[in-house]
Amino acid sequence: MVSPNNHREHLRRLAGKNNHRPRPARQRSFTGDIEHVAAETYLITHLAFTLLRYLGVGYRWITKLLALGCYAMLLMPGFLQVAYYYFFSSKVKRSIVYGDQPRNRLDLYLPADVSEPKPVLIFVTGGAWIIGYKAWGSLLGLQLAERDIIVACTDYRNFPQGTISDMVNDTCQGISFVINNIASYGGDPNRIYLMGQSAGAHISSCALLEQAAIESGNRDSVSWSVSQIKAYFGLSGGYNLLDLVDHFHNRGLYRSIFLSIMEAEQSLKKFSPEIKIQDPCIKDSIPLLPPMFLFHGTGDYSIPSIASERFADALTKAGARAELTLYDGKTHTDLFLQDPLRGGKEDLFEHVVSIVHADDSDALAKDATAPPRKRLVPEILLKLAHNISPF
């Protein structure tokens, strides 16, 4: 584990290596930022080619790839603004090490003022278990930081670097790091929230249930407790893998690949939170779970909204506290990308903020007078992106 002070000292030594004359801090920072941009670009490109290698090249994926390219170009005005903030804002602490694996890194998005401890949201990104990446949460981090909420976006090993158990273990380790170290960055360890989107919702819910099962078994060696998570937010997630195998296969994430990610067919039940929550063997774990808030768009074709409906029903029947919110006609990317890029007031965003700030009257009063968020992409481009999205 690397402390913030040791990390800064390490960077200072690297900056001064082979150069006895100190250079201005701005120059060192700018050079480091450019190097980081190059490294991030390489990694994203590598992820894209890895995805293509596993999906194969055929008519279906050529059309999807073209649609994805057009989709990204339409949203590029917003992506560029968020990328500039991500790489050059002093309020973004990038690639903090939380474990010993190459992808065990996380990004922190800090509010302008951290003179008092702030609530913290741990975010686990999506990416079909193949192209998940911490920077996908930069738009969410930017917007929640404006509301005085620290956001920690955790990275994790993707397939083929790792399989689902590695992803869950990495996520557990990232949560542990945040809980045990966030106070040194201005966060309140007593106000920690967990959120996952798409594949990240699946992985984070698996991590939460696994940790609850460990605690209910009275094991001593735990580095964090489910009781330290005040609420869980699952956005557009899939929670029953048995129901999704054929659906993903028909959409191009072929059965053989998906089963390799999930460690063979016999592991599908083990990594299906909807099924696991109904297992009598973990009934003692249920009271440990935090309130579970699930969000899904009814126009989601990547993961149908019935996935969240059934998980919410299973949670409620098992005795957990669950709340489901459906957004009429919203697609897999509307809630996470197009709507936030639109700016203004957005129901999902305001709902999450209201839950995080529920016990802070001053923060709620500040939220009530907060100006509408800035629009990052013209409406016509957002509508075209909605229509052309391959997700």
Automatic annotation (TrEMBL):
Its main location: endoplasmic reticulum. It comes from the Eukaryota. It is found in: Endoplasmic reticulum membrane; Golgi apparatus membrane. Its EC number is 3.1.1.n2. Keywords: Endoplasmic reticulum, Golgi apparatus, Hydrolase, Membrane, Transmembrane, Transmembrane helix. One of its GO terms (cellular component) is Golgi membrane. Residues 1-27 are annotated as: Disordered. The chain crosses the membrane at residues 65-87. One of its GO terms (molecular function) is hydrolase activity. It is a multi-pass membrane protein. Residues 106-315 form the BD-FAE-like domain. Residues 9-26 have a biased composition (Basic residues). It catalyses: [protein]-C-terminal S-[(2E,6E)-farnesyl]-L-cysteine methyl ester + H2O = [protein]-C-terminal S-[(2E,6E)-farnesyl]-L-cysteine + methanol + H(+). Pfam families: BD-FAE (PF20434). Belongs to the AB hydrolase superfamily. Isoprenylcysteine methylesterase family. This is protein-S-isoprenylcysteine alpha-carbonyl methylesterase. It comes from Vicia faba (Broad bean).
